[in-house]
Fold this protein.
Amino acid sequence: MFQTKPPAAAPFTRAGMMTGLRASLPLWPSIAVFGAAFGAAAAQRGLSTAEAAATSALVYAGAAQMVTLEVWGRPWTLSLLLSAMTVTALINARMILMGATIQPWMRGTPLWRTALTLFVLVDASWLIGVRHRSEGGRDLGVLFGAGFGLWPLWIVSTVAGHLAGALVTQPRAYGLDMILPVFFAAMLAPLWRGARPALPWLVAGITALIVQRLVPGYGFIAAGAMAGLITGLLVDDGAAR
Amino acid sequence: MIDALLAGPLGTPLAILVLALVTYLCRASGVLLMSRVRLTPRVERGLRALPGSIVVATALPTGLAAGIPGLAGLVTAAAVMALTRFELAAVMAGLAAVAGLRALGL
């Protein structure tokens, strides 16, 4: 798992990048479909092709992009922009916690490399990186390669979806609105280390459900994840030191 | 004045840049915060619990909000992944479960 004192900066190799890229390949079809769904939804909300492509290229966070379309300004006002910022921050708050999990891995890495790797940090690459770490690897190229490989795919599929527009008029009928939760649920299997280490997950899930009931919006993700983190801090998970 | 700028031709490019900045701050702030925390065994234990907690806190409420098809999608995806260890099969099976049950009107 996490070493207490990493001897030096983690390696960042071309072979690692290829490993990360390969590990992300099974996800390409579903991410392309998700990107196309965003492009189509953006077209319906009146974004130009260039605006949709720029959003995918610069924001590069599918769930946040999708939900932000709900409050997209036509035209923009300060209050609309503030609500779009809030929605984006709340949905992406999980990235703060993802960053926390990979920080020990990045200790001693040059700033530019950290900054670049973080720019392409997405759910898929984070999970691939976490898996690489849990299997004893520490090549940061894996984390970078997975996220960097998905980046052009995300932009191209956004553009394709925007141009096709009408092709994906009913993403709900194909379950496309559920890609992110379904993908996350699938990732539980490789993370599973037995019932005892999963206790924080249970606390996280219950907390998220309660917060979702009580507080409107997307704060439940961060609240649940924080509850899991705190449970992990307080309760022994039985892992060997 | 800000409203006038946002309503103009620069409004949307500006909004996209702001949203990109917000997202990058989310990506970077966890790393920045943790670089000031000493890695004690307790902190490592918390960090070990975090990935699964993020996954569950994201997937469970979103899935349950989509009713029976949503819950079925989550269970199917987790089960297929546990059996096959193949992401594409798991995601496709999960989405098929959602779409199928919705087609049945659930």
